[in-house]
Amino acid sequence: MRKRQIARLCALSLGIILFCTQMASAQRVSSPRQLPTYSPQTVLQQLTQANVVYLGETHNNPQDHLIQLQIIEELHRQNPNIAIAMEMFQRPFQFQLDRYIANDLTERQLQDRTDYKDRWGYPWEYYAPILRFAKANRLPVLAMNTPTEITRKVARSGLESLSQSEQQYIPPLSEIRTDNPAYRQLMLDIYQQMHQGVGGSNSFERFFQAQVLWDETMAEVIAKFLRTNPDFQVVAIVGQGHIIYGHGIPTRVARRLGSANLVQRTVLLNPSPNDQYKADRSAADFIWRSRFE
What we know:
This protein has eleven helices and eight strands. It has 293 residues and is an alpha/beta fold.
């Protein structure tokens, strides 16, 4: 049975070849070709043992979304208790996702009632097959993201600017931790590339607070679900920046749940050749490519 499942995985999506690279230490190498290569079966065995699996995407890469669906289907075959956590939906719209899974809303209604086009905006068909699979199998879909209005306000005016009512869809401010120096440096590098030296330290601090708020909010959603549903596995569909090196969501889930019995696995899907972390063995547990380079 398992051999047939793996063969199916390798045959899906127009003959996509899956290149799976395990990344287990902090050693840096000059080329990703020097890293060990594992079969899809080996990688899936690792993923099935995790409480949380993060599938880090580039939002506008259709190949990433095909791989996400394939992995979800295979994980579900081995464990029907799967929940799919999605960055693409913001927390105030959880009720609408629940209604869609219960067959009370159409896809068009779900898009309209979650304000999908304005709040996310990437083509619906990238994510629709994942949602359809969840609906067909009655799998919980978790709306993870911080409301756009809140993130923008923090980026503009800082966390201290939020009113009590604006804090209802985010963790308590005391749980929003900005004290990771490695993550701060990573975000500073990204910020400087974006702004090319324009923007002072206060602007960066607000930018960093907004990024951390994003991560903490999504981590809280995952942790809350696992506390009440310990027999479930959560598969999180998120941008790569939220999981590389574990700084974003994974460490914050571990802080909430404790790391003793918690197993998390991070997968980067098709990282760009321009991404500096593509050859860094500490960036994630696995790189999963649609084709050999």
